[in-house]
Here is the input.
Amino acid sequence: QVQLVESGGGLVQPGGSLRLSCAASGITFSVYNMRWYGQAPGKERELVAVISSTGSTNYADSVKGRFTISRDNAKNTVYLQLNSLKPEDTAVYYCNARSINAPAGGYWGQGTQVTVSS
Here is the structure.
């Protein structure tokens, strides 16, 4: 069975940092495009960052220069480093795995809560 398990969320003050992890199983991780989405209460789920199977990255304008996505294929894990956090970054962050060989929309994790508050 395909599983994506996020971890690393928590409560931090503005300006603080967190490192989110997403561990994948049941897929050939190295060929997947990996994404992080964020969903604030009452809002649509929005794409935050992407890393391709070749390691190229893209970011939402709102997080560019503050967040970094990376992957470790040996550990079947994708990371999101969140720096200089702002209250508007508060959201549930979800990991998503996509491939041309996977069902449309890919696979999703359960999410991890990030709360930025003083």
